[in-house]
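INTERNAL AUDIT FORM
Audit reference: QA-55
Scope: verify that the stored structure record matches its stored sequence.
Auditor: D.O.
Record contents follow.
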Amino acid sequence: MRQGPVVRSKVPPVSAIASSLAQQIARLIQAEGLAEGDALTERSLAARFDVSRSPVRGALRDLERAGVLRPADRDGYRLADPAAAAALAVAPTEPDEDEAVYLAIARDRLAGQVPDRISENALLRLYGITRPRLQALLRRMSKEGWVERLPGNGWRFLPVLTSMETYRQSYTFRQAIEPAALRDPGFRANVPDLTRHLDQQRRLVAGEVLAISAVQLFQINSDLHEAIAQCSGNAFFIDALRRVNRLRRLIEYRLTVDREQARLRCAEHVRILELVLAGRTADAADEMQRHLAALGPIKAPTALPDTLPV
């Protein structure tokens, strides 16, 4: 096996983990559109971020000291100041070491430097992190659908798109199914869910798109497209879109996001959602067709470019 560059890192102290988590929780508060008085608990946040409850507890205390949260009953907190959360969400932080390793694995897998099947020990040697951190990353990758556990201590990486030609084809396929999902006779808008996505996209257009990571941006936007497809009630559209999003994930991670182009794409998302919520699904389908067609033509038929709008 041709090995990729070894990533060496030390386990950050608990206080550093808590500080990083505090900002991630602030971003979650903003992304989910939580309001004053909404509850947050150690248990749910630990599950959300795949960490133990100890650093979550420290992060919640930091957020309390910052005026973002106030204590509630038992181990919970309630949101005290959404504006303080928004300010903390965009504050600069130290690079997330686990996120760097996550992206390194994605990059090396896309480059063919990580085989289809590999043991945890081999991954530990390649990336130089502790087993608990590696296992947390593998659980995250498993949830995202590009790796699965094998019997014993091994993992299998699932197929992904690896060329610009197959990536381009994914957009041609999406142009066929996503507008069709909007035109499906069974389409029924999930108003609360789509309204949440609309608020989120408006915040991205207003400036959040400049601050979040490429991984977060991909997840937010792919979730939006899947939410629209789900309103069709057609299991074939829903399953097909989820599969293609899983396949294109690593190429998206490989590319440097053009933030201004991404802002324009988010503005198009806003327009599509506004049309859907106004009951104008035929117009929304036409807008979706134009949106996807604009993303498809990429001037690199045989090689991955350095930048790409999301």
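Auditor finding: record pair retrieved intact. The longest strand covers residues 76-79.
Action required: none
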